[in-house]
Design brief:
Layout: H1 4-67
């Protein structure tokens, strides 16, 4: 026959395991939220950088056209090392 003490320790073990599962799922959810927020911030930064580069290009073209009406445009070739924050 099982004693009440053994039954109680078994139910405590089950409660601990359920609690651990809940805490683990909460931690995983928080990690996913943090990673999603980081990705959104990176995308927003890249969007802002793109907008600034486009505006600078338009301003440069206007300045070149006003200095030389025969201006037809230009192309720049940059290496990844010339762009700050880019690994490759």
């Amino acid at each position: 026959m099982t004693s009440p003490r053994k039954k109680r320790s078994g139910s405590i073990l089950i409660c601990v395991l359920v609690s651990l599962a809940i805490v683990t799922s909460i931690a995983a959810s928080m990690l996913k939220t943090a990673l999603d927020a980081r990705k959104a911030v990176r995308q927003e930064l890249q969007l802002s950088q793109t907008e600034f580069l486009l505006e600078a290009g338009v301003q440069r073209a206007v300045a070149q056209l006003s200095a030389d009406p025969a201006y037809t445009g230009e192309s720049w070739q940059l290496t990844s090392a010339a762009i700050p924050g880019q690994e490759s």
